[in-house]
């Protein structure tokens, strides 16, 4: 690392601003706990690791609770209307796998990997997109309906894709 810095300093000896940026970048990178732990094989204390694990495990439960509370406050179970629900399901389960298959073929996936990618694209979306939609108030009614009905119809649609692709 020192040799790299000496090489860079010889290249930009007259340009003080660039040298300052490189120094600041190096200083910030070495201060981070991830880089220090990886470099010197120092692990996180068990109590901190368990605390982070507990918080991350509670996050999914809180997101599900938030989705349930939002759905309970809606006047009907299809909060966004029937036409928006049908369009969101069609986009999720028809356009999603179509786009995934086109992108997979474009990058050269063939055979079983292509089939697995298409089936994964047909799986239901998670709860995290609803959390972001609710937080930023960007169509949370459509996302809540898509999450609920997506989970209900995901099994038959995924099985259909599984059978059609011969996996």
TrEMBL record:
It is a multi-pass membrane protein. InterPro entries: Auxin_Efflux_Carrier, Mem_transp_PIN-like. The keyword Membrane applies. One of its GO terms (cellular component) is endoplasmic reticulum. It is found in: Membrane. The chain crosses the membrane at residues 113-133, 140-164. Its main location: membrane. The keyword Membrane applies. It holds the Pfam family Mem_trans. One of its GO terms (molecular function) is auxin efflux transmembrane transporter activity. Belongs to the auxin efflux carrier (TC 2.A.69.1) family. PANTHER family: AUXIN EFFLUX CARRIER COMPONENT 1B-RELATED, AUXIN EFFLUX CARRIER COMPONENT 3A. This is Auxin efflux carrier component.
